[in-house]
Design a protein that fits this description.
By secondary structure, the protein is mostly helical. Helices cover 68% and strands 0% of the residues. It contains 3 helices and no strands. α1 packs antiparallel against α2.
Length: 85
């Protein structure tokens, strides 16, 4: 898979992941979620952070940055807590 294909795939994962997070967040915010919903949301947010980190890494690689020189920064998805959503 080419780097451009990896970038496009990462963007699709991010887009679909956001939809999953939004769907999971709705019943939690409404107070009508089943047991375990907040924990599941936490897992979805962790996956989303991975997708976003992958995209960041691919974009840096495309732009000529060496993976040994930089590290992925934390983002809002990984810092979010289900209790604050």
């Amino acid at each position: 898979m080419s780097l451009d294909e990896k970038i496009e795939q990462a963007r699709r994962h991010i887009e679909s992941g956001r939809a999953v997070v939004d769907r999971q967040r709705r019943p939690i915010n409404a107070g009508s979620s089943p047991p375990g919903a907040a924990e599941l949301l936490k897992r979805f947010l962790q996956s989303q952070a991975i997708f976003e980190g992958d995209l960041e890494r691919f974009l840096k690689e495309r732009d000529g940055f060496s993976p040994q020189v930089w590290g992925c920064k934390a983002n809002a998805w990984s810092a979010a807590s289900p209790s604050t959503l």
